Automatic annotation (TrEMBL):
Protein name, per record: TetR/AcrR family transcriptional regulator
UniProt domain HTH tetR-type: residue ranges: 12-72
PROSITE patterns listed in its UniProt record: HTH_TETR_1, HTH_TETR_2
Organismal lineage: Bacteria, Pseudomonadati, Pseudomonadota, Gammaproteobacteria, Lysobacterales
InterPro entries: DNA-bd_HTH_TetR-type_CS, Homeodomain-like_sf, HTH-type_TetR-like_transc_reg, HTH_TetR, Tet_transcr_reg_TetR-rel_C_sf, TetR_C_Proteobacteria
Keywords (A to Z) from UniProt: DNA-binding
DNA-binding region: 35-54
């Protein structure tokens, strides 16, 4: 997971190196096989330095997941606009989601998180809590459009989950669960266009 820019302070550079090394280790070895010793060696820091930044391997992994979700979160997606037609707004939002799902770090770490959660109910609970703290950009958009009277749904959260499922059914679960390749540009456009058409045909 490449961090844009170069941190100025030494402590920030060390933290960035730890995160970069941890991403590589988690992706390559999985959660269980990754140790703080391996991350320290890869980052070129002491294990004590890692613990100065992150109290545990779980905390480090959760930080990485949260950073990935932030990269695809509301602050990087186009918010709902009352003065624009719905379809181009929603297409832009779905394409934003597809770019996140196609991020190699995101796909690999999602796979690691699923496997790790099966072995650690406590980590699974922490992941659920973490994801619950972030309202996805798509959910926020659907809520805003429904509140504006432009979508016909009494349950915007449910409607947003349906749209997410339409997208992830082609661009996430086959890749994470079955090792299928990421969609190419033409396939991604087809998924985005058809998902938006189906969604607006029902709720528009």
């Amino acid at each position: 997971m490449t961090v844009p820019g170069t941190p100025a302070r030494l402590t920030d550079r060390k933290r960035a190196a730890i995160v970069e090394a941890a991403v590589a280790e988690f992706r390559g070895a999985g959660f269980e096989a990754t140790s703080m010793d391996r991350i320290a060696a890869s980052a070129g820091v002491s294990k004590r330095t890692i613990y100065n930044h992150f109290p545990s391997k779980d905390a480090l992994f959760l930080h990485i997941v949260d950073a990935l979700m932030a990269r695809g979160g509301d602050e990087h997606a186009t918010p709902y606009r009352a003065d624009r037609p719905l379809r181009p707004q929603l297409l832009e939002l779905v394409r934003h989601k597809l770019r996140l799902l196609h991020d190699p770090d995101f796909a690999d770490l999602a796979r690691v998180a699923i496997v790790a959660s099966l072995h650690s109910p406590d980590l699974a609970r922490q992941l659920v809590d973490l994801l619950g703290q972030r309202e996805h950009a798509m959910t926020a958009w659907v809520r805003a459009a429904a509140a504006d009277g432009r979508l016909n749904t009494g349950d915007p959260g449910f409607a947003a989950m349906q749209l997410e499922a339409l997208v992830k059914g082609f661009a996430f679960w086959p890749q994470v669960a079955m090792g299928q390749p990421a969609l190419d540009a033409e396939q991604a456009d087809t998924v985005a266009d058809s998902a938006v058409s189906m969604f607006l045909a029902h709720y528009g």
